[in-house]
Design goal:
mainly alpha
Length: 417
Amino acid sequence: MHRYIALILVLLFVSGCALKQPSKSFDEARLDSLLLEATFLESQKLYDLANQYYKQVYDLTNEPIILQKMINNSYLANRLDEAISLAQEGIKKYPKNKKFYEQLSSIYFAKKEYDKAAQYIQKAIQLAPEAKDYEFLGSIYLAQKRYQLALKYYKSAYALQPSQKSVNTIAYIMFFYLEKQKEAIAYLETHTRIYGCQKSVCHTLASFYSLLNDIDGLISVYKRLYENYHEVPYAQKVAQLYIYQKEYEKAKRWAKKVDDKELLLSIYKLQKDFDKAYEVAMQLYKEKKDPKFLAQAAIFEFEGAKVKDRKLLRSVASKLEKAIKKDRDPIYLNYLGYLYIDYDIDITRGVKLVEEALQKEPDSPYYLDSLAWGYYKLGKCKEALKLIKKVYYDLHFQDDEIQLHLREISKCAKEID
Protein backbone atom coordinates (compact mmCIF):
# COMPACT_ATOMS: atom_id res chain seq x y z
CA MET A 1 0.00 0.00 0.00
CA HIS A 2 2.80 2.43 0.88
CA ARG A 3 4.20 2.32 -2.66
CA TYR A 4 0.97 3.84 -4.00
CA ILE A 5 0.95 6.50 -1.30
CA ALA A 6 4.51 7.46 -2.25
CA LEU A 7 3.57 7.62 -5.92
CA ILE A 8 0.46 9.73 -5.22
CA LEU A 9 2.57 12.18 -3.21
CA VAL A 10 4.98 12.51 -6.14
CA LEU A 11 2.12 12.96 -8.57
CA LEU A 12 0.52 15.58 -6.34
CA PHE A 13 3.79 17.48 -6.28
CA VAL A 14 4.05 17.28 -10.08
CA SER A 15 0.44 18.35 -10.55
CA GLY A 16 0.96 21.19 -8.07
CA CYS A 17 3.84 22.45 -10.16
CA ALA A 18 1.78 21.96 -13.30
CA LEU A 19 -0.81 24.45 -12.07
CA LYS A 20 1.73 27.18 -12.65
CA GLN A 21 2.47 25.98 -16.20
CA PRO A 22 0.40 25.56 -19.37
CA SER A 23 -1.65 22.33 -19.20
CA LYS A 24 0.02 19.25 -20.67
CA SER A 25 -1.29 17.11 -23.49
CA PHE A 26 -2.65 13.64 -22.77
CA ASP A 27 0.53 11.94 -24.13
CA GLU A 28 2.82 14.13 -22.01
CA ALA A 29 0.82 13.38 -18.88
CA ARG A 30 0.91 9.67 -19.66
CA LEU A 31 4.69 9.79 -20.18
CA ASP A 32 5.12 11.55 -16.85
CA SER A 33 3.06 8.87 -15.14
CA LEU A 34 4.96 6.00 -16.79
CA LEU A 35 8.34 7.50 -15.97
CA LEU A 36 7.38 8.11 -12.35
CA GLU A 37 6.22 4.52 -11.95
CA ALA A 38 9.34 3.15 -13.68
CA THR A 39 11.65 5.27 -11.54
CA PHE A 40 9.87 4.22 -8.36
CA LEU A 41 10.07 0.52 -9.25
CA GLU A 42 13.75 0.95 -10.11
CA SER A 43 14.41 2.47 -6.69
CA GLN A 44 12.81 -0.67 -5.17
CA LYS A 45 15.14 -2.84 -7.32
CA LEU A 46 12.16 -4.25 -9.22
CA TYR A 47 14.01 -4.01 -12.50
CA ASP A 48 11.80 -6.30 -14.60
CA LEU A 49 8.66 -4.41 -13.60
CA ALA A 50 10.40 -1.08 -14.20
CA ASN A 51 11.29 -2.22 -17.72
CA GLN A 52 7.64 -2.87 -18.54
CA TYR A 53 6.95 0.85 -18.00
CA TYR A 54 10.17 1.95 -19.77
CA LYS A 55 9.13 -0.19 -22.76
CA GLN A 56 5.87 1.78 -23.04
CA VAL A 57 7.83 5.04 -22.80
CA TYR A 58 10.28 3.84 -25.47
CA ASP A 59 7.45 2.83 -27.79
CA LEU A 60 6.06 6.36 -27.46
CA THR A 61 9.36 8.28 -27.76
CA ASN A 62 12.04 6.13 -29.40
CA GLU A 63 14.54 7.95 -27.15
CA PRO A 64 17.90 6.08 -26.97
CA ILE A 65 18.36 7.02 -23.31
CA ILE A 66 15.21 5.03 -22.41
CA LEU A 67 16.54 1.99 -24.26
CA GLN A 68 19.83 2.38 -22.35
CA LYS A 69 17.87 2.39 -19.07
CA MET A 70 16.19 -0.85 -20.14
CA ILE A 71 19.55 -2.44 -20.96
CA ASN A 72 20.91 -1.43 -17.57
CA ASN A 73 17.86 -2.83 -15.75
CA SER A 74 18.06 -6.14 -17.63
CA TYR A 75 21.72 -6.34 -16.65
CA LEU A 76 20.91 -5.62 -12.99
CA ALA A 77 18.16 -8.25 -13.07
CA ASN A 78 20.79 -10.73 -14.35
CA ARG A 79 18.96 -11.14 -17.64
CA LEU A 80 22.14 -10.88 -19.64
CA ASP A 81 20.86 -12.36 -22.92
CA GLU A 82 17.92 -9.95 -22.85
CA ALA A 83 20.35 -7.07 -22.16
CA ILE A 84 22.50 -8.16 -25.13
CA SER A 85 19.46 -8.26 -27.43
CA LEU A 86 18.42 -4.75 -26.36
CA ALA A 87 21.97 -3.39 -26.78
CA GLN A 88 22.22 -4.89 -30.26
CA GLU A 89 18.90 -3.26 -31.11
CA GLY A 90 20.34 0.06 -29.91
CA ILE A 91 23.48 -0.33 -32.07
CA LYS A 92 21.34 -1.15 -35.09
CA LYS A 93 19.08 1.90 -34.60
CA TYR A 94 21.72 4.33 -33.34
CA PRO A 95 25.09 3.20 -34.79
CA LYS A 96 26.82 6.47 -33.80
CA ASN A 97 25.74 6.31 -30.14
CA LYS A 98 28.78 4.88 -28.34
CA LYS A 99 26.89 4.20 -25.09
CA PHE A 100 25.32 1.07 -26.62
CA TYR A 101 28.76 -0.32 -27.54
CA GLU A 102 30.00 0.36 -24.00
CA GLN A 103 26.98 -1.38 -22.50
CA LEU A 104 27.29 -4.39 -24.77
CA SER A 105 30.99 -4.66 -23.93
CA SER A 106 30.21 -4.60 -20.19
CA ILE A 107 27.61 -7.35 -20.56
CA TYR A 108 29.98 -9.61 -22.49
CA PHE A 109 32.62 -8.93 -19.84
CA ALA A 110 30.15 -10.06 -17.15
CA LYS A 111 29.62 -13.25 -19.18
CA LYS A 112 33.42 -13.69 -19.40
CA GLU A 113 33.22 -13.49 -23.20
CA TYR A 114 36.31 -11.30 -23.24
CA ASP A 115 37.00 -11.25 -26.99
CA LYS A 116 33.51 -9.90 -27.72
CA ALA A 117 33.84 -7.43 -24.85
CA ALA A 118 37.11 -6.15 -26.35
CA GLN A 119 35.59 -5.95 -29.83
CA TYR A 120 32.71 -3.67 -28.76
CA ILE A 121 34.71 -1.39 -26.49
CA GLN A 122 37.19 -0.88 -29.34
CA LYS A 123 34.27 0.23 -31.53
CA ALA A 124 33.25 2.68 -28.80
CA ILE A 125 36.81 4.04 -28.74
CA GLN A 126 36.73 4.49 -32.53
CA LEU A 127 33.62 6.65 -32.17
CA ALA A 128 35.08 8.84 -29.39
CA PRO A 129 38.18 7.86 -27.40
CA GLU A 130 37.82 8.33 -23.64
CA ALA A 131 40.10 7.36 -20.78
CA LYS A 132 37.42 5.19 -19.13
CA ASP A 133 37.06 3.07 -22.30
CA TYR A 134 40.81 2.53 -22.56
CA GLU A 135 40.81 1.53 -18.87
CA PHE A 136 37.99 -0.92 -19.49
CA LEU A 137 39.82 -2.43 -22.47
CA GLY A 138 42.89 -2.74 -20.24
CA SER A 139 40.82 -4.55 -17.59
CA ILE A 140 39.54 -7.01 -20.23
CA TYR A 141 43.10 -7.91 -21.21
CA LEU A 142 44.07 -8.06 -17.53
CA ALA A 143 41.28 -10.61 -16.96
CA GLN A 144 42.75 -12.62 -19.86
CA LYS A 145 46.24 -12.35 -18.30
CA ARG A 146 47.47 -10.54 -21.41
CA TYR A 147 49.52 -8.18 -19.31
CA GLN A 148 51.44 -6.36 -22.05
CA LEU A 149 48.22 -5.43 -23.84
CA ALA A 150 46.57 -4.46 -20.55
CA LEU A 151 49.53 -2.21 -19.77
CA LYS A 152 49.36 -0.61 -23.22
CA TYR A 153 45.73 0.45 -22.83
CA TYR A 154 46.04 1.58 -19.22
CA LYS A 155 48.90 3.79 -20.39
CA SER A 156 46.63 5.13 -23.15
CA ALA A 157 43.99 5.95 -20.52
CA TYR A 158 46.61 7.66 -18.36
CA ALA A 159 47.86 9.71 -21.31
CA LEU A 160 44.33 10.99 -21.98
CA GLN A 161 43.41 11.56 -18.34
CA PRO A 162 46.07 11.02 -15.65
CA SER A 163 44.40 9.55 -12.58
CA GLN A 164 45.43 7.86 -9.36
CA LYS A 165 43.52 4.71 -10.33
CA SER A 166 45.21 4.31 -13.71
CA VAL A 167 48.75 5.03 -12.49
CA ASN A 168 48.29 2.57 -9.62
CA THR A 169 47.05 -0.12 -12.00
CA ILE A 170 49.95 0.50 -14.39
CA ALA A 171 52.38 0.18 -11.49
CA TYR A 172 50.75 -3.03 -10.19
CA ILE A 173 50.91 -4.67 -13.62
CA MET A 174 54.59 -3.74 -13.98
CA PHE A 175 55.53 -4.75 -10.43
CA PHE A 176 53.64 -8.02 -9.99
CA TYR A 177 53.05 -9.38 -13.50
CA LEU A 178 55.89 -8.11 -15.66
CA GLU A 179 58.66 -8.12 -13.01
CA LYS A 180 59.53 -4.50 -13.74
CA GLN A 181 59.79 -3.34 -10.13
CA LYS A 182 62.12 -0.41 -10.73
CA GLU A 183 60.08 0.81 -13.69
CA ALA A 184 56.87 0.59 -11.63
CA ILE A 185 58.42 2.68 -8.87
CA ALA A 186 59.79 5.19 -11.39
CA TYR A 187 56.32 5.56 -12.92
CA LEU A 188 54.77 6.31 -9.52
CA GLU A 189 57.60 8.66 -8.53
CA THR A 190 57.16 10.62 -11.76
CA HIS A 191 53.42 10.95 -11.08
CA THR A 192 54.08 12.26 -7.55
CA ARG A 193 56.55 14.85 -8.86
CA ILE A 194 53.94 16.18 -11.29
CA TYR A 195 50.74 15.85 -9.25
CA GLY A 196 52.00 15.69 -5.66
CA CYS A 197 52.02 12.86 -3.15
CA GLN A 198 48.37 11.80 -3.45
CA LYS A 199 47.44 9.32 -0.74
CA SER A 200 46.51 6.28 -2.82
CA VAL A 201 49.55 6.67 -5.10
CA CYS A 202 52.00 7.23 -2.27
CA HIS A 203 50.52 4.33 -0.29
CA THR A 204 51.14 2.09 -3.31
CA LEU A 205 54.66 3.48 -3.58
CA ALA A 206 55.25 2.80 0.12
CA SER A 207 54.02 -0.79 -0.23
CA PHE A 208 56.44 -1.37 -3.13
CA TYR A 209 59.40 0.09 -1.20
CA SER A 210 58.39 -2.11 1.75
CA LEU A 211 58.33 -5.25 -0.41
CA LEU A 212 61.82 -4.38 -1.66
CA ASN A 213 62.95 -3.54 1.91
CA ASP A 214 64.00 -0.09 0.69
CA ILE A 215 63.93 1.82 3.98
CA ASP A 216 65.24 5.08 2.52
CA GLY A 217 62.49 4.99 -0.11
CA LEU A 218 59.88 4.39 2.60
CA ILE A 219 61.17 7.28 4.68
CA SER A 220 61.04 9.57 1.66
CA VAL A 221 57.40 8.64 0.93
CA TYR A 222 56.18 9.05 4.52
CA LYS A 223 57.95 12.40 4.80
CA ARG A 224 56.12 13.63 1.71
CA LEU A 225 52.81 12.30 2.99
CA TYR A 226 53.33 14.14 6.27
CA GLU A 227 54.28 17.37 4.46
CA ASN A 228 51.11 17.11 2.34
CA TYR A 229 48.57 16.06 4.96
CA HIS A 230 50.17 16.80 8.36
CA GLU A 231 48.75 13.55 9.78
CA VAL A 232 50.52 12.24 12.88
CA PRO A 233 50.75 8.55 11.79
CA TYR A 234 52.97 9.52 8.86
CA ALA A 235 55.48 11.28 11.14
CA GLN A 236 55.37 8.28 13.49
CA LYS A 237 56.20 6.01 10.55
CA VAL A 238 59.23 8.16 9.73
CA ALA A 239 60.42 7.99 13.34
CA GLN A 240 59.89 4.20 13.49
CA LEU A 241 61.86 3.70 10.28
CA TYR A 242 64.72 5.80 11.65
CA ILE A 243 64.62 3.64 14.79
CA TYR A 244 64.91 0.57 12.54
CA GLN A 245 67.99 2.15 10.98
CA LYS A 246 69.28 2.99 14.49
CA GLU A 247 69.37 6.67 13.58
CA TYR A 248 68.00 7.63 16.96
CA GLU A 249 68.64 11.39 16.78
CA LYS A 250 66.60 11.69 13.59
CA ALA A 251 63.92 9.48 15.12
CA LYS A 252 63.72 11.75 18.18
CA ARG A 253 63.34 14.85 16.01
CA TRP A 254 60.32 13.32 14.27
CA ALA A 255 58.79 12.07 17.53
CA LYS A 256 59.15 15.57 18.98
CA LYS A 257 57.68 17.11 15.80
CA VAL A 258 54.30 15.53 16.65
CA ASP A 259 54.83 15.51 20.43
CA ASP A 260 54.67 11.71 20.60
CA LYS A 261 56.05 11.15 24.09
CA GLU A 262 55.45 7.39 24.06
CA LEU A 263 57.51 7.02 20.90
CA LEU A 264 60.16 9.29 22.39
CA LEU A 265 60.18 7.13 25.51
CA SER A 266 60.78 3.99 23.44
CA ILE A 267 63.76 5.68 21.74
CA TYR A 268 65.32 6.68 25.08
CA LYS A 269 64.85 3.09 26.25
CA LEU A 270 66.63 1.75 23.17
CA GLN A 271 69.48 4.21 23.78
CA LYS A 272 69.53 3.26 27.47
CA ASP A 273 69.28 6.94 28.28
CA PHE A 274 67.53 6.22 31.56
CA ASP A 275 67.60 9.80 32.88
CA LYS A 276 65.68 11.11 29.84
CA ALA A 277 63.43 8.05 29.86
CA TYR A 278 62.60 8.75 33.53
CA GLU A 279 61.67 12.38 32.75
CA VAL A 280 59.37 11.42 29.87
CA ALA A 281 57.76 8.54 31.77
CA MET A 282 56.92 10.87 34.66
CA GLN A 283 55.48 13.45 32.23
CA LEU A 284 53.29 10.74 30.71
CA TYR A 285 52.16 9.58 34.16
CA LYS A 286 51.17 13.12 35.11
CA GLU A 287 49.30 13.59 31.83
CA LYS A 288 47.56 10.20 31.56
CA LYS A 289 47.50 8.90 35.15
CA ASP A 290 48.38 5.48 33.75
CA PRO A 291 50.23 3.42 36.40
CA LYS A 292 52.39 1.69 33.80
CA PHE A 293 54.26 4.96 33.24
CA LEU A 294 54.88 5.32 36.98
CA ALA A 295 56.21 1.75 37.10
CA GLN A 296 58.45 2.39 34.10
CA ALA A 297 59.72 5.63 35.66
CA ALA A 298 60.65 3.67 38.80
CA ILE A 299 62.59 1.13 36.71
CA PHE A 300 64.43 3.87 34.81
CA GLU A 301 65.21 5.66 38.07
CA PHE A 302 66.83 2.51 39.41
CA GLU A 303 68.65 1.50 36.21
CA GLY A 304 70.02 5.00 35.68
CA ALA A 305 71.33 5.48 39.23
CA LYS A 306 75.07 5.16 39.75
CA VAL A 307 74.68 4.56 43.49
CA LYS A 308 72.03 2.08 44.65
CA ASP A 309 71.58 3.38 48.21
CA ARG A 310 68.65 2.96 50.58
CA LYS A 311 67.16 6.31 49.67
CA LEU A 312 66.99 5.26 46.02
CA LEU A 313 65.58 1.85 46.90
CA ARG A 314 62.80 3.43 48.98
CA SER A 315 61.92 5.85 46.14
CA VAL A 316 61.81 3.10 43.52
CA ALA A 317 59.87 0.66 45.72
CA SER A 318 57.35 3.35 46.66
CA LYS A 319 56.60 4.10 43.00
CA LEU A 320 56.29 0.43 42.08
CA GLU A 321 54.05 -0.33 45.07
CA LYS A 322 51.75 2.50 43.99
CA ALA A 323 51.74 1.30 40.39
CA ILE A 324 50.97 -2.37 41.10
CA LYS A 325 47.90 -1.42 43.11
CA LYS A 326 46.22 -0.70 39.76
CA ASP A 327 48.39 -2.57 37.27
CA ARG A 328 49.39 -6.15 38.18
CA ASP A 329 51.62 -6.54 35.14
CA PRO A 330 53.99 -9.49 35.80
CA ILE A 331 56.98 -7.42 34.65
CA TYR A 332 56.40 -4.88 37.43
CA LEU A 333 55.58 -7.57 40.01
CA ASN A 334 58.81 -9.43 39.24
CA TYR A 335 60.93 -6.27 39.15
CA LEU A 336 59.72 -5.14 42.57
CA GLY A 337 59.90 -8.68 43.94
CA TYR A 338 63.50 -9.15 42.79
CA LEU A 339 64.40 -5.74 44.23
CA TYR A 340 63.07 -6.81 47.64
CA ILE A 341 64.90 -10.15 47.38
CA ASP A 342 68.26 -9.03 46.01
CA TYR A 343 68.66 -6.10 48.42
CA ASP A 344 67.29 -8.04 51.44
CA ILE A 345 64.52 -5.47 51.93
CA ASP A 346 61.57 -7.85 52.34
CA ILE A 347 62.43 -11.29 50.93
CA THR A 348 59.13 -12.93 51.87
CA ARG A 349 57.07 -10.23 50.14
CA GLY A 350 59.45 -10.34 47.19
CA VAL A 351 58.88 -14.09 46.78
CA LYS A 352 55.10 -13.62 46.89
CA LEU A 353 55.25 -10.94 44.18
CA VAL A 354 57.40 -13.16 41.96
CA GLU A 355 55.08 -16.14 42.51
CA GLU A 356 52.15 -13.97 41.36
CA ALA A 357 54.10 -12.99 38.25
CA LEU A 358 54.76 -16.70 37.54
CA GLN A 359 51.05 -17.49 37.77
CA LYS A 360 50.61 -15.25 34.73
CA GLU A 361 53.76 -16.37 32.87
CA PRO A 362 54.80 -19.74 34.35
CA ASP A 363 57.67 -20.40 31.93
CA SER A 364 59.42 -17.05 32.14
CA PRO A 365 63.13 -17.71 32.79
CA TYR A 366 63.48 -14.26 34.39
CA TYR A 367 60.71 -14.88 36.92
CA LEU A 368 61.95 -18.42 37.63
CA ASP A 369 65.42 -17.03 38.29
CA SER A 370 63.97 -14.41 40.65
CA LEU A 371 62.06 -17.09 42.56
CA ALA A 372 65.12 -19.33 42.76
CA TRP A 373 67.10 -16.41 44.20
CA GLY A 374 64.31 -15.72 46.67
CA TYR A 375 64.24 -19.33 47.82
CA TYR A 376 68.03 -19.23 48.18
CA LYS A 377 67.77 -16.11 50.35
CA LEU A 378 65.18 -17.93 52.50
CA GLY A 379 67.46 -20.96 52.85
CA LYS A 380 65.37 -23.21 50.56
CA CYS A 381 68.38 -24.17 48.49
CA LYS A 382 67.17 -27.51 47.11
CA GLU A 383 63.95 -25.91 45.78
CA ALA A 384 66.06 -23.05 44.44
CA LEU A 385 68.46 -25.48 42.70
CA LYS A 386 65.62 -27.18 40.77
CA LEU A 387 64.42 -23.81 39.50
CA ILE A 388 67.82 -22.41 38.53
CA LYS A 389 68.75 -25.66 36.75
CA LYS A 390 65.53 -25.40 34.71
CA VAL A 391 66.48 -21.85 33.73
CA TYR A 392 70.08 -22.72 32.89
CA TYR A 393 69.82 -26.20 31.30
CA ASP A 394 66.24 -26.49 30.01
CA LEU A 395 65.51 -22.91 28.97
CA HIS A 396 69.15 -22.17 28.03
CA PHE A 397 69.35 -18.80 29.77
CA GLN A 398 72.98 -18.55 30.77
CA ASP A 399 73.93 -14.91 31.26
CA ASP A 400 76.45 -13.80 33.90
CA GLU A 401 73.88 -13.16 36.61
CA ILE A 402 72.21 -16.56 36.15
CA GLN A 403 75.63 -18.27 36.23
CA LEU A 404 76.37 -16.50 39.50
CA HIS A 405 73.03 -17.61 40.93
CA LEU A 406 73.64 -21.20 39.80
CA ARG A 407 77.05 -21.28 41.51
CA GLU A 408 75.79 -19.80 44.79
CA ILE A 409 72.66 -21.96 44.92
CA SER A 410 74.61 -25.14 44.01
CA LYS A 411 77.12 -24.38 46.77
CA CYS A 412 74.31 -23.84 49.28
CA ALA A 413 72.57 -27.11 48.27
CA LYS A 414 75.84 -29.06 48.67
CA GLU A 415 76.40 -27.61 52.11
CA ILE A 416 72.89 -28.72 53.14
CA ASP A 417 73.58 -32.26 51.83
